[in-house]
């Protein structure tokens, strides 16, 4: 399938979902398949979550996709912008003829209007894994290469609460311009297992999390749902989860881990959050 479509769920319905239905609606289990592309289009703010894993040949952004049928446009980024973070081996992205090398954990923002975007790996046996988010856009901002050293770093949490971590803001108004997409990578310190706790929701934006650096046989219990109707999705390495605006998005792991967050919606105000009352969550 060139692109899977996910419809939105009403919170009144979602609280009745069983495990299988929760996973069917919100979990993205397989994103990185060697030599292949995976795309999941969510009706929630029309974010597209994708994985490009080139091996012995480059992969093109719109490869195998009829953009007129799926997006109503002549090419993928005609009315869209793109955020990418490489979580695999060294690779490169060429956007309209300009090549950007992406080392592991490097990011790239590609502005609206770029016609040809091509993903390639340096070593087919250690392929790049380009985690890619796309959001509707209204104007063109410059394409920007972001390495983790350029990201805006926000240390938070502490050892006492087992949530000591650094939020690396890659695509963020204080780093570079984008239309609506914000994106970054949060790294938990060794011995910490909680992310985004105390938890929050934000009715103004939806969010997608990709969990990574989870060792074999370890898991993250992703917490979602309205603050008084919490549910768990068991997640494994390099799996993602779609978080509607009404849902918290927190997690606790059996080992430290990292995750990439991406948001689209009303604003780009990272701290615009509705913090939950820890005495009221259920
Ligand atoms: O570690 C955290 O806390 C986060 O990374 C929070 C997410 O970025 C988020 O939920 C922003 O709304
Ligand atoms: Zn959030």
UniProtKB/TrEMBL annotation:
Pathway field: Glycan metabolism; pectin degradation; 2-dehydro-3-deoxy-D-gluconate from pectin: step 4/5
UniProtKB keywords: Isomerase, Metal-binding, Zinc
Residue positions binding Zn(2+): 200, 202, 207, 249
Its EC number(s): 5.3.1.17
Metal-binding among keywords: yes
Pfam families attached to this UniProt entry: KduI
Family annotation (Gene3D superfamilies): Jelly Rolls, pectin degrading enzyme 5-keto 4- deoxyuronate isomerase, domain 1
Reaction(s) the record says it catalyses: 5-dehydro-4-deoxy-D-glucuronate = 3-deoxy-D-glycero-2,5-hexodiulosonate
Cofactor binding note from Swiss-Prot or TrEMBL: Binds 1 zinc ion per subunit.
A molecular-function term among this protein's GO annotations: 4-deoxy-L-threo-5-hexosulose-uronate ketol-isomerase activity
Cofactor(s) this protein cannot do without: Zn(2+)
Domain of life where this protein originates: Bacteria
Enzyme kind, highest EC tier: isomerase
Signal peptide: none
Stated family: Belongs to the KduI family.
Protein task: Catalyzes the isomerization of 5-dehydro-4-deoxy-D-glucuronate to 3-deoxy-D-glycero-2,5-hexodiulosonate.
Protein name in UniProt: 4-deoxy-L-threo-5-hexosulose-uronate ketol-isomerase
Species this protein is from: Solibaculum intestinale
Lineage of producing organism: Bacteria, Bacillati, Bacillota, Clostridia, Eubacteriales
Encoding gene, per UniProt annotation: kduI
């Amino acid at each position: 399938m060139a692109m899977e479509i996910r419809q939105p769920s009403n919170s009144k319905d979602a609280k009745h979902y069983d495990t299988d239905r929760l996973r069917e609606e919100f979990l993205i289990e397989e994103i990185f398949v060697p030599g292949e592309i995976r795309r999941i289009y969510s009706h929630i703010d029309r974010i597209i979550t994708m994985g490009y894993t080139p091996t012995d040949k480059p992969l093109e952004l719109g490869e195998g996709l009829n953009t007129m049928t799926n997006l109503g446009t002549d090419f993928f980024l005609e009315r869209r912008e793109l955020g990418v973070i490489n979580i695999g081996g060294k690779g490169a992205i060429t956007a309209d003829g300009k090549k950007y090398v992406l080392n592991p954990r490097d990011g790239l923002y590609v502005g609206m209007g770029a016609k040809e975007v091509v993903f390639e790996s340096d070593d087919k046996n250690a392929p790049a894994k380009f985690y890619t988010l796309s959001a509707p856009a209204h104007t063109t901002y410059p394409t920007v290469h972001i390495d983790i050293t350029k990201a805006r770093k926000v240390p938070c949490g502490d050892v006492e609460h087992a949530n000591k971590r650094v939020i690396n803001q890659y695509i963020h108004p204080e780093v570079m311009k984008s239309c609506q997409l914000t994106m970054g990578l949060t790294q938990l310190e060794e011995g910490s297992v909680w992310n985004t706790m105390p938890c929050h929701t934000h009715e103004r934006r939806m969010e997608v999390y990709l969990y990574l650096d989870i060792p074999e046989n370890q898991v993250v219990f992703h917490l979602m749902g309205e603050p008084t109707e919490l549910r768990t999705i068991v997640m494994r390495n390099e799996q993602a989860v779609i978080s509607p605006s009404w849902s918290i998005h927190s997690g606790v792991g059996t080992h430290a881990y990292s995750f990439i967050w991406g948001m689209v919606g009303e604003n780009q105000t990272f701290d615009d959050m509705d913090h939950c009352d820890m005495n009221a969550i259920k």
